[in-house]
Amino acid sequence: MESIPQLTYVENFLSPSQEASLLEVVDASPWLDDLKRRVQHYGFKYDYKARRIDESMFLGPLPDWAAGVASMLDQQGLFRLLPDQLIVNEYLPGQGISAHVDCEPCFHDTIASITLGSSCDMDFTHVDTGEKRTVHLQSRSVIVLHGESRYLWKHAIAGRKSDVVDGKRVLRTRRVSLTFRNVLLGS
Ligand SMILES: O=C(O)CCC(=O)C(=O)O
Ligand SMILES: [Fe+2]
Fold first, then answer.
1. Minimum CA distance residue for ligand 1 atom 10
2. CA 111 to ligand 2 center in whole angstroms
3. Which domains are assigned to the chain?
4. pTM for the structure as a whole
5. Which of 98, 113, 185 is nearest to 150 (CA)?
6. Which of 32, 35, 54, 178 could bridge 114 with an S-S bond, Cβ 3.0-4.6 Å?
7. ipTM score of complex
8. Conformational region of residue 34, where left means phi above 0, alpha means psi within -120 to 50, and beta covers everything else
9. Using CA atoms, how far apart are residues 102 and 137, in angstroms rounded to an integer?
10. 8, 46, 89, 110: which to mutate for ligand 1, most atoms within 8 A of CB?
């Protein structure tokens, strides 16, 4: 399968013990139930309906555990700016996210999503040509969307209970993703 320009995928970004301790802090933190899946917002609250962010949505600096992951992304050269916003998403088997391009006026050009728990397919569709690609996100990996992969391809996770990986059906379990971004504040 051809790759997507300006998409970086790194396996074993986290060690199993880092993954376990991140899941532990996330699960000890309050979840928001306003979507079909549970989420947590750090740094800035994002309004999915209005698709906007401004200073009034500032929640405070990232907590230490999230700032630690943000600086790992920065130190490994995966981000040009230190991320200042994090959304945690929880997907139970059968849950997904519909195809979208992350809000252009809200966030900078680099978005990184770390997978904790279950692996899953992330499906990409080119906004103009409709071309399709799939990247299987392994547990403890990070996928970084930048430039073309961030702006010209929609990404989605199908709401199903298994994926076919290298010809084999893999059942999904609970997946928690950590998506780091930089907020663009209006001028
Ligand atoms: O769960 C993921 O890895 C992606 C989440 C996502 O695309 C989003 O929150 O915009
Ligand atoms: Fe997204």
1. 102
2. 8
3. 7-181 (2.60.120.1520)
4. 0.96
5. 113
6. 178
7. 0.99
8. alpha
9. 18
10. 89
Find the residues whose C-beta lies inside 6 A of ligand 1.
87, 89, 97, 102, 113, 155, 177, 179
Q: Name residue 182's amino acid.
A: N
Helices (H), 64-124: 64-75
Tokens found for residue 62: 């990232």
- Averages of pLDDT over runs of 10 residues in the chain (187 residues) are 90 98 98 90 91 90 98 95 96 97 96 98 98 97 98 98 97 98 85
Locate the ligand 1 atom nearest the alpha carbon of residue 175 and give its number: 1
Structure tokens belonging to residue 5 = 């320009």
b/e code 52-68 from CB counts within 10 Å (16+ = b): ebeeebeeeebeebbbe
